[in-house]
User: Which sequence fits this backbone?
């Protein structure tokens, strides 16, 4: 159980996860719950403070997400952001009206009435903030003071110091708002009087002790992929239960060059993990023969993984738990009050093991964001080359081969991809980007090598910057580095005579090609 707990009610903002991350970065534990959460869960959570997120709706519309008034009677400090500010005004007797124009983007903000939220911020009389709203507060509730304004909004912030309720029309959680983290920290520490008790060291120690109690002397089986999530989950479980953890690494034949040896060798040598490697490459490639549709490829790989994992897990006697590297964003997504998002494609990672296994879940990382998992990895003593491995999809290289997957095409892509990884590491660019990899295209082009004309394959380079993979932009690598990659791939990878660069962003494109 965490002290100093902040509950964030999600009203549908695209920035809600950022609020939770800013709170945690300040050393205070936070959780996101949908705005229509059962009030009993809120009481059980015992929050020390409440933050209301933004959202796309208008409080003036029928059916708009509402605020349970009981939460305002809990006697805890409250911060409303954007839609959260309008909800507070609407519920407490103020007036909200539609703006003539939606205000979106940067604005200049001036603080008023010595608002505690802006303490210690030198630029508080000329603060750049990020707006994204269609409605605005036109009259404050009784007992509230104006705490800031912009050129176009009279009430850009409001507050009731006696009740410790504050609200901002702008988004302090986004990087576009100057001193946004400082504003949130002023709410946490100066308004709510919280202390910074959330640290990764304490999380790791507490979680390991909790795992010991949860699992006892039972056996746990875990699918180890080599990614940071499953690796950290495995090491934490190993520290809690030792050899009663059974890791299964399924080699689906779709891995990068040397990946199997690198992952298994390191974990066995340095952490003495109990790992069984299953060579199922022939099974996966047989199922993929002749398949070109990307969604069908994903599903075939997912079904085969479940089949292989289930078979291997049942061969271990006495297993009662299934370990998974579930992260907090997965938990949030599954609880969104808006319902399931539109399916763009099946998830990159394989999930959903058969119910017939009758295993209880154990998920050591379900409270963590991706960046926190990496901090946990440091606390556990994992080396940087494991911690900073770039994300790799569950279906592996199959979704970086456009069209049919076979051993010949895999060999071409593996070598091209290895060159990309090596060159980025040598140029000190590997950790500067979110992901960088090669894609094998389903076409051939004419080229000239020596005195001969060639008709060979095309490799595309996909290298992107991102914070969380929700959005991404193509990385502006030095032209010299791109030239080295291209030259090496064409010279060293038999069957390739052209390299192209993908310069599309997400959205509208995705990071992976399939």
Assistant:
């Amino acid at each position: 159980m965490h002290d100093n707990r902040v509950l964030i009610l999600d009203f549908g903002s695209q920035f809600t996860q950022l609020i939770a991350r800013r709170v945690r970065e300040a050393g205070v534990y936070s959780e996101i719950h949908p705005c229509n959460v059962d009030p009993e869960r809120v009481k059980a959570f015992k929050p020390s403070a409440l933050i209301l997120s933004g959202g796309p709706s208008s409080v003036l519309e029928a059916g708009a997400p509402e605020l349970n008034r009981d939460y305002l009677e809990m006697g805890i400090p409250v911060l409303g952001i954007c839609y959260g500010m309008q909800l507070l005004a609407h519920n407490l007797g103020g007036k909200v009206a539609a703006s003539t124009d939606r205000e979106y983007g940067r604005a200049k903000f001036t603080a008023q009435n010595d608002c505690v939220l802006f303490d210690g911020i030198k630029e508080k009389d000329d603060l750049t903030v990020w707006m994204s709203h269609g409605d605005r507060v036109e009259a404050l509730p009784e007992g509230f003071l104006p705490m800031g304004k912009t050129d176009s909004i009279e009430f850009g912030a409001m507050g009731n110091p006696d009740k410790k309720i504050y609200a901002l029309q702008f988004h302090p959680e986004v990087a576009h708002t100057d001193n946004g983290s400082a504003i949130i920290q002023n709410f946490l520490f100066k308004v709510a009087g919280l202390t910074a008790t959330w640290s990764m060291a304490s999380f790791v120690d507490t979680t390991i002790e909790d795992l010991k109690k949860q699992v006892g002397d039972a056996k746990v089986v875990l699918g180890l992929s080599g990614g940071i999530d499953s690796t950290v989950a495995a090491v934490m479980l190993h520290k809690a239960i030792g050899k009663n953890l059974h890791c299964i690494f399924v080699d689906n034949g779709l891995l990068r060059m040397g990946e199997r040896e690198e992952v298994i060798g390191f974990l066995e040598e340095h952490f003495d993990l109990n790992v069984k490697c299953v060579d199922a490459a022939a099974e996966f490639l047989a199922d993929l023969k002749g398949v070109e549709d990307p969604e069908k490829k994903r599903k075939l790989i997912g079904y085969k993984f479940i089949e292989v994992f289930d078979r291997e897990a049942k061969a271990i006697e006495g297993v009662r738990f299934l370990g998974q590297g579930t992260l907090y964003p997965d938990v949030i997504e599954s609880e969104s009050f808006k319902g399931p998002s539109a399916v763009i494609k099946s998830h990159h990672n394989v999930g959903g093991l058969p119910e017939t296994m009758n295993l209880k879940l154990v998920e050591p990382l379900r409270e963590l964001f991706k960046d926190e998992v990496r901090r946990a990895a440091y606390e556990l003593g994992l080396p940087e080359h494991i911690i900073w491995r770039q994300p790799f999809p569950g279906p592996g290289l199959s979704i970086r081969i456009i069209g049919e997957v076979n051993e010949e095409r895999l060999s071409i892509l593996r070598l091209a991809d290895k060159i990309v990884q090596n060159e980025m590491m040598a140029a000190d660019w590997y950790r500067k980007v979110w992901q960088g990899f090669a894609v094998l295209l389903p076409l051939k082009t004419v080229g000239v090598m020596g005195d001969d004309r060639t008709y060979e394959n095309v490799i595309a380079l996909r290298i992107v910057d991102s914070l969380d993979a929700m959005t991404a932009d193509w990385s502006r690598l030095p032209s010299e580095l791109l030239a080295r990659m291209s030259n090496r791939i064409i010279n060293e990878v038999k069957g390739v005579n052209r390299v192209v660069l993908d310069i599309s962003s997400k959205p509208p494109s995705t990071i992976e090609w399939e």
Remarks:
- The CA atoms of residues 93 and 258 lie 65 Å apart.
- The chain is about 30% helix and 25% strand.
- The chain has a mean pLDDT of 89.
